[in-house]
Amino acid sequence: MPSKHTAPRTYFPRTIAEALDIHASQQGAVFWAGGTHLAQSSHNRRYIDLPRVVVSLGRVEELARASRSEEGLELGSMMSLDRLDSIGRNALPLGLPEALAHLGSRPLRCRATIGGHIAMRDRMGDLTGLLQLLDTQIETRYLKLRRGRRKPAISSRKLSLSQLNGPEGLQDGELIVRLSIPHGDWTHGFALKIPVTGNGRRQLNFYALARVDKNVLNQWRMALSDGQSGILRDRDLEVAMAGKPLPLSKRDMDALEGSVEHLTRVWENRPCEREIAQRLTRGILTDIST
Amino acid sequence: MTISFYLNGQPVEVDVLPHRRSTDVLHEEFGLRSLHRTCQNQGCGICLILLDEQPVLSCLLPAFELRDRDIWTAEGLALLKEFGDIVEGFGSVGVRPCPICGPARTLATEALLRRTLRPTRQQAKDTAASIRCDCCSEARVISAVLKTARIREARLHAQ
Ligand SMILES: Cc1cc2nc3c(=O)[nH]c(=O)nc-3n(C[C@@H](O)[C@@H](O)[C@H](O)COP(=O)(O)OP(=O)(O)OC[C@H]3O[C@@H](n4cnc5c(N)ncnc54)[C@H](O)[C@@H]3O)c2cc1C
Ligand code: FES
Q1: What's the predicted TM-score (pTM) here?
Q2: Residues flanking ligand 1, CB < 6 Å
Q3: Nearest CA-CA partner of A203 in A257, A262, A270, A261
Q4: ipTM summary value
Q5: Which CATH architecture describes the domain B2-76?
Q6: Which CATH class is domain B80-158?
């Protein structure tokens, strides 16, 4: 961040190509979507401490487009969380309406974008765990110098949200353009945000998806997050749970609880979070068994 | 940086640093006294304005984001007949927000009614909860928002 008194240079590209070019040609440039996360960390009363160069994405029409199909949703990265919410409960994948409702207030959601949400580097957005469970795919664009060419050309990359959150994550200058969220054939979806401390500084995000047919748990996915230490998920157990009759046998329930115990070991000094995670898992399994 | 935008229905222009908080720009450069800042980026909602019909937190909005936008504050809304519905709705259930949160509550209610004339209880609750101020109870603000919606709908039908 520059000194608080340095006014940033601001750019308002109208196309993806322009946005990438400006970002590449200006050292220290940062993409600005809704700006809520970037602005939140500024503690200067009078000014919002901004990077030296701001590339505002608000006028890039292509990034604001969205469409719906039988398979799922295609969302431009500049879609605001409020616009996503207004698509309506029946058209959104299970769990997403609840997750959106827990995310800040409407004035925040009107500015905050889905692209900015998943691109935050120092914080794990509340929707991330659920979007990972839903197999969300990301499409990005970046500039790449090709052999024999003097000017870099636009390249694209498709990756899963889990990859984006991992070491293959977003590179400097790489722009998220689209998210594809498949509907899947889930019959149950849960998205819970539990405040662990009264001041709201600690919270637990709990997400689960299930497909139950004739009292058989055909698919099960679960993710936990405290917003800081990444997404906790046990894929082996998810595979092992497929095809289990409901209600789960004591052995299967013990396996599930053991998995939660194991996963949450990273929260070793957070017994409240661990206890809540166990209770929620048990509660949700009871819920889908009835 | 010279920024042109629409403010309460009028085209305006202002020369400001691009990273000034919009709350201050509107308050200091345009004398809009309804705008306040009471928290430090914590989302209290008191600084709410309408940007292209959407409620947004102006303290998190740098001045450059005002460019070419349609901005409304409580001063502008007070000149429209929609404001009468809100005054009547809130008054009829006895809710009198304080001068600090009143402008933001008015704008938040208006933003909701521009989205839907028949808000659900949950939407009214979200609207009430989007402004954090202890001057009136959330339950009563929810009633006031729902009452305003009924008044608005009746007025539009009668036209
Ligand atoms: C009062 C308040 C309450 C909040 N509450 C919550 C909450 O309850 N839960 C929660 O999860 N979050 C919360 N947040 C964080 C909130 O800012 C994010 O969740 C929001 O979605 C970020 O989106 P944005 O568009 O504003 O991102 P920005 O601030 O614009 O950008 C965030 C980061 O992403 C990068 N970026 C943006 N778009 C792209 C793109 N298309 N391609 C590549 N990089 C990009 C930016 O350079 C920046 O590094 C809160 C924030 C505030 C201010
Ligand atoms: S003053 Fe803007 S959110 Fe509190």
Answers
A1: 0.95
A2: A 30-38, 40, 77, 103-104, 108, 111-113, 115-117, 119-121, 125-126, 170, 175-176; B 41-43, 60
A3: A270
A4: 0.96
A5: Roll (3.10)
A6: mainly alpha
